[in-house]
């Protein structure tokens, strides 16, 4: 335990230092070419109300794309105050907006590009409580490509990663991992994830985590390094994500672990608790490191701001009792799914429950409860997250609903495990 604590502390400290240095470096890049590249496609990427496309597919994308947060990310990439140095930018994350009290990112980005650096009619905001690690790749890409081309490049990367996971899973004779990973992706409104800078972050991190597990599972398991692995996944999620649907980077890899390692019930439960704790320490610890670094060096007041933000994000919605509000917000998130996805989820749940009933009737419960218990707990993680962070989950239900894909991943995992056990029973 003492060794693990030392490892965790060292990894967190190194991550915070390296993360800070990398942000400083990208803020040294010239923003002039980035602004010109953004200007080339800002009109196409941020359609106005009188420019609604005519064909059905384009209209669907126009209505559902998460341009609000994408616009914030892009403007953060091209912001540069002449009287502030790179370190101050990395810590404060300055952002001009047309409004003083509310955010209007799409209109503000357009105005920022059209005004050619004239910000006299705009208000200076800060976004210091996030790391904004996505700038590590977004700024260099915008230096070379337009915003539209960056989106296409990111789409290509996601498709390539999904193919890589599928091929590796088949080669490792564990196609169930691919089925769980890619099957759960269907419950994220996948097209919108593929074409959004914001929504693709957690999905890319999830794919990279699953791919690493497929390639290095034996080594991670034998050396007892899975806690450090989930710690690093939590750190990377905190660093790169904009608080969208972070739990997927924990829940989907957990499901894949149960497919890769068939341990007994209590062994899996202990590991489930340990891995969740590791991810949580990485996620919260890395986030807190940004607040501490910013406050100690620049007296930004980020710790106070972050604490009040946490209080606001986690408060019960609409004055309701917490559990009552939690169920209400779960309903809001479920409502984001189109009808056909609700039917698909119902079928998936019915198959899982049907298999469970069949197992009980056949008297094989003792053989499968070891696999069922950790999967059920994993399926409950997104619902617990929504209840705990219900104000944020209600305010941003249009993208937080994607954490429910973890429950879909757990259901698919259970079905795959039962099918695998049935096949092994037939062979024996």
TrEMBL record:
Q: Which UniProt keywords apply?
A: Membrane, Transmembrane, Transmembrane helix
Membrane spanning stretches: 7-29, 150-170, 191-210, 230-260, 272-293, 339-361, 368-387, 399-419
Q: What is this protein called?
A: Glycosyltransferase RgtA/B/C/D-like domain-containing protein
